[in-house]
Amino acid sequence: MAKLIIQGRKTVSGTHRVSGNKNAALPMIAASLLTSEPVTISNLPDIADVASMLEAAERFGAQVSRNLGDSTVTLCAKKLKTAIIAPELAAKLRTSFLFAGPLLARAGRATLPPPGGDQIGHRRLDTHFAGFKALGAKAVAGKKTLRFKGELKGAKILLDEASVTATENILMASVLAKGATEIYNAACEPHIVDLADMLNAMGAKVSGAGTNLIRVEGVEKLGGCSVRVGCDYIEAGSYIVAAAVTGGELTLTNVEPGPFDVLEGAFKRFGVTWTIDSREKTLRYVPKKRLKMKYDLGDAIPSIADGVWPAFPSDLMSILIVLATQTRGTCLFFEKMFESRLYFVDHLRQMGAKIVQCDPHRVVVTGPSQLYGGTVGANDIRAGIALVIAALCAKGETTIHNVAAIDRGYVAIEKELSALGASVERRVDFDA
Hints:
The protein is an alpha+beta fold. It has two domains: about 1-20 and about 230-430, UDP-n-acetylglucosamine1-carboxyvinyl-transferase, Chain; about 20-230, Enolpyruvate transferase domain (UDP-n-acetylglucosamine1-carboxyvinyl-transferase, Chain, Alpha-beta prism), CATH 3.65.10. The protein is about 30% helix and about 25% strand. It has helices at about 20-30, 50-60, 85-90, 100-105, 125-135, 165-175, 190-200, 235-245, 260-270, 315-325, 345-350, 380-395, 405, 415-420; strands at about 1-5, 15, 40, 65, 70-75, 110, 140, 145-150, 155-160, 180-185, 205, 215, 225-230, 250-255, 275, 280-285, 305, 330-335, 355-360, 360-365, 375, 395-400, 425-430. The strands form six sheets. Strands 21-22-1-23 form a four-stranded mixed beta sheet, covered by helices on one side. A four-stranded mixed beta sheet has the order 2-14-16-15, covered by helices on one side. It has a four-stranded mixed beta sheet with strand order 4-5-3-13, with helices on one face. Helix 10 (about 315-325) packs parallel to helix 12 (about 380-395). The longest helix has 14 residues, at about 235-245. The protein is globular and about 60 Å long. The model is unreliable at about 115-120 (pLDDT under 50).
């Protein structure tokens, strides 16, 4: 079991290259099973979740050739060996369920165990089931196995929630279905657009991605392609906060401006602003003054709430809570998406943060607080990186256990932060 040892109160400053978007890379790997021809994906992040998805693709029959030097992988699934995903792989990450759509479309069947992944609350699969059934598949949900079978036909589908993974799964299933499909109340996140662009490069006919109405004209077969994963704006936001709470300056490279239009409003609340050079694909953060909360009209305490895109993303809520602990003022955080995401604030309180948890979905944070090092554990990817950031600005030494959770979403976190001036060391407990 690995752990991180962090010496706090060291400035995080310098230049960091932003990785490819984890949430785009995973469905793009799954989509490679839709064709028998080679698919090359570049700007792929070297993280544990990607490794697990590639392993799963290999078990389905894909040949995987990876070049770590330029973050590129080529997959070729000439023939599918099986339409069953192994339980141990499914337990590693929730997005194993994204193979259901491609397997159903190409093989006419799929058998999967319930997916694993972060334990941040109940994440229902009903929207996936309803979409597959609307396309003509028979779906059976047992306690230990989920089965899908049938020939797919286009349909008009109204999603009961704007689920990202359900939108991706149904979209991948529909591209080889007979006839036209409409997916209404679709998720609009940038990684949906990345997936749709990939499918179109393979010969699919998808329009409307990035809006809540996606239209698909089914085709008989798909071909190979070369595509690039978009930048991970969640990783970028995490590093910006790491610099902000330690008083550092930061330049991010490999940045695509679009998603930051959604993020900047919430960050400005704390006095964190940046400039983006679209031509050079760089983002520059320079601290201009002390972090101070911008209140609402009438000096009302502001609220940061997440939601479906283009609302503020849930994956950055934990990180912004740490930012609030170092910002003068009070802020209410309303986590609407997952009922267990905010429980990590117990660790922040242990470190000295002034936080009141109102209920599973809301916390009130008053800053600035002097944080102190201690021993904490990463419950999920985003809570893990939030605790890393808290440790960076804390006084003394912090030990963070369960680093495997962080590795699922962040590339070589100890190396990247150390290169920016932080003191972060990875150690292994052989007796754990």
